[in-house]
């Protein structure tokens, strides 16, 4: 398992929108590195966990529990075959493009060591938005991405440091539950009856998903 690329984005106009002031950092490109990784601060204030990476709508993106976004190169390759077009590393707006790791199959609370310094912890899957759809330029992209159920993973920073393309990636902790990123994604998007199962992940789960799971369980049992 390794890190194929580290991808950073600069603020650019949002594609396919009538708002001339809307900007996004979703257009991320590989950089040589090294890149400093650290917890950015709480959501709404903190941006990306990677130095030099733009997060423009901080009420929705960035912050400690969504500090880093990772996508498996294998998932990009699968989408290439389905869409009939090439997708570069960073093409989904991900900070980290990995190889040899089932990112969407990772457990909530799973910890990865990248290189010799950085440790990250999986928190949740990525929820697609219209900015993502505009960036890809694919019709009904939000619906198609959601149906696929392989959203990639957001991570929080446990131990800061520097990373670069080619660094080894190692799973150093796997929690004792069965709540994967893919399961969490399905629970908050297409099958809310799965929400009570997320409670097994505890505080490692993104706080918003944990709150949704608790409320559903209180209302419906489970």
Automatic annotation (TrEMBL):
PROSITE patterns: MOSC. One of its GO terms (molecular function) is catalytic activity. Residues 29-172 form the MOSC domain. Residues 18-27 have a biased composition (Basic and acidic residues). Residues 1-27 are annotated as: Disordered. InterPro entries: Benzoxazolinone_Detox_Enz, MoCF_Sase_C, Pyrv_Knase-like_insert_dom_sf. This is Sulfurase. It comes from Streptomyces viridochromogenes.
């Amino acid at each position: 398992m390794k890190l194929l690329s580290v991808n950073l984005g600069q603020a650019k106009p949002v594609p396919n929108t009538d708002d001339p002031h809307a900007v996004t950092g979703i257009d991320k490109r590989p950089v040589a590195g090294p890149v400093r990784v650290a917890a950015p601060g709480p959501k709404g204030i903190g941006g990306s966990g990677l130095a030099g990476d733009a997060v423009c709508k901080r009420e929705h993106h960035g912050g400690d529990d969504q500090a880093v976004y990772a996508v498996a190169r294998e998932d990009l390759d699968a989408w290439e075959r389905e869409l009939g077009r090439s997708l570069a590393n960073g093409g989904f707006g991900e900070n980290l493009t990995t190889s040899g790791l089932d990112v969407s199959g990772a457990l909530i609370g799973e910890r990865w060591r990248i290189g010799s310094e950085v440790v990250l912890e999986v928190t949740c899957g990525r929820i697609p938005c219209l900015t993502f759809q505009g960036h890809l330029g694919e019709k009904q992209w939000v619906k198609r991405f959601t149906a696929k159920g392989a959203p990639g993973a957001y991570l929080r920073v446990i131990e800061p440091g520097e990373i670069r393309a080619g660094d080894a990636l190692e799973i150093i902790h796997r929690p004792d539950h069965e709540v994967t990123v893919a399961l969490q994604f399905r629970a908050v998007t297409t099958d809310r009856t799965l929400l009570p199962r997320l409670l097994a992940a505890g505080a490692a789960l993104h706080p918003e998903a944990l709150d949704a799971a608790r409320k559903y369980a209180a209302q419906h049992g489970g």
